[in-house]
Each structure stands twice: as C-alpha cells, then as structure tokens.
User: Which sequence fits this backbone?
C-alpha cells in the first residue's frame, strides 16, 4: 500500500512539472497559433542557470528567481526570432522554434558541457498516506497548482490577459481596438520562458537535467497540452496527471524503460475516448 501511495504521489509531482511546461505551450499557441518546440529548452536553461547562480554565490531562492527571470528573457528572444517579422506564417514560426531548440542545445553544450546538473533544493521528506515523499516534489506540485490558478486569473481578470485572449481569438478586431498582437505574441513567449524556467528549477533538485532532457519534456508537455485542446491550462494539468501517474506506476510495477511510451499510449486512448466531446476549435 505504501508503494502505491509513493508512486501516486511521485506521479502527482511529476504531473506538476509537465503541467508547467505544457501550460507554456498552451499560452504561446493561444496567442500566436504557433507550437513552440523550444519549450523543453527553457526547462534545461532553468536548471543550468539555477546551478550557475548558486555557484556564483546567490542564496537559495534568489538563484532560482534569477534563473526564471533570465529564462523568461530567453523566451522573449526566441519569440522575437520566431514571430518578430510581421506576416510570418505559424508553420514557419514552428520550424524556427524547432531550430532554436537545436541552437539552444549547442549553446548549453558550449557553456556548460554535457554533464547533467542537479542543484540542491529543499531537503527532507514528508510522510503522507503511509509513504515518504520528498519535500521538493511536493513543492513542485504546489507551485504548479498556484501558477495555473494565477494564469487563470491573469487571462480572466486582468486587462493584459483580456488583450492576450483578444489577440488570439480575433487578431484583426484586436488591432482595430489598439492591441498590438505582435507585442502580445512576444509576451506569450516570455511567459512560456518563465514557466519553462520555473519547471527547470523545481525539477532539477530531484531529477538530474541534461542537455538531452528537452525532448522528453517537450513531448510529454505537448501531449498534455493537446489533451487540453491547446486551450486550457487546467485541462493540460489533467493530461499531465494521466501522464505522470501512469508513468510512475509503470516504472514502479513494471519496467521503467517503458514508462513514457505506455503513458503516452494511455493518453492516446483517453483522447480517442473523449474525442466526441472536443469543441470545433479543439478538433482543428
């Protein structure tokens, strides 16, 4: 019983990280209709930068904050290259983000090398439902839930959020009322960078992150985002729950080598089952 609780709690924590990365994909897609394949690179940058800032002497907390801010700036730069030129087709921008992920990998290798990093996070464990779970993993889940709630408030209760939504739903009408859709697009990439960096600084203390970690993260996050119709951060979180919990159960009771593949198959089965409930926009 304690093993089951451990796998479920670990799966929930993993889901939190997938939800943060997937929400970054959702924000960019909602505003620009571009699938950002550089989102996994933001996670890797966040992990490496937090390690570097810690080595430079910044105290815990401040080093992670600095890493998230810098990763947000990296997201802005990726956005400026991907959508900065007016009239860039979303498919072209998608390919640019794919290219930027490759460039990011080259930069990470040149600056930090290929060895994985795992900065020190919050130590200790908490006993829940008869199982021991690392405090850092619970922190990841808690931060993910709070961040998604904050994003919901951003999009529904603030002028910036309403401008982002307007730029996504009807760009022409948004421009007519004075909303600069390109600025909104750049803001969405910056938010995606912040979310990716946040995921990186939270994940790295429990799971070593290397330059090759971007692909597994972006694939899992993209699956969760697609489960949410690339529109809803909360549905993305549900998709992340399916991926995270299924993966941990497979790793615990079967073979860890197949946890990602089986989790993705589970996700595909659920998406097929709920396909009739997709809205017309989600089905596109």
Assistant:
């Amino acid at each position: 019983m304690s093993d089951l609780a451990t796998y479920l709690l670990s799966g929930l924590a993993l889901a939190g990280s997938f939800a943060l990365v997937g929400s970054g994909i959702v924000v960019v897609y909602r505003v620009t209709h571009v699938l950002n394949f550089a989102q996994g690179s933001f996670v890797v940058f966040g992990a490496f930068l937090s390690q570097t800032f810690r080595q430079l002497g910044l105290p815990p907390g401040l080093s992670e904050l600095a890493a998230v801010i810098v990763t947000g700036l990296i997201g802005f730069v990726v956005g400026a290259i991907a959508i900065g030129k007016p009239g860039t087709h979303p498919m072209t921008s998608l390919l640019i983000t794919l290219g930027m992920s490759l460039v990011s990998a080259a930069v990470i290798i040149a600056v930090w090398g290929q060895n994985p990093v795992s900065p020190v996070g919050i130590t200790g464990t908490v006993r829940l439902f008869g199982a021991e779970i690392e405090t850092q993993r619970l922190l990841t889940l808690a931060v993910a839930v709070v961040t998604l709630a904050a994003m919901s408030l951003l999009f529904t209760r603030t002028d910036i959020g309403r401008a982002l939504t307007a730029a996504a739903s009807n760009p022409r009408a948004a421009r007519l009322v004075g909303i600069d859709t390109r600025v909104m697009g750049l803001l969405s990439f910056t938010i995606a960078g912040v979310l990716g960096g946040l995921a990186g600084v939270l994940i790295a203390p429990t799971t070593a992150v290397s330059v090759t970690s971007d692909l597994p993260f972006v694939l899992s996050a993209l699956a969760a985002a697609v489960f949410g119709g690339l529109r809803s951060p909360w549905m993305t979180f549900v998709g992340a729950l399916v991926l995270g919990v299924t993966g941990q159960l497979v790793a615990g009771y079967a073979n860890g080598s197949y946890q990602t593949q089986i989790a993705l198959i589970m996700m595909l089965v659920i998406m097929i089952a709920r396909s009739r409930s997709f809205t017309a926009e989600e089905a596109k």
Q: What stands out?
A: The beta strands are 125-128, 131-134. The chain has a mean pLDDT of 84. The first strand starts at residue 125 and ends at 128.
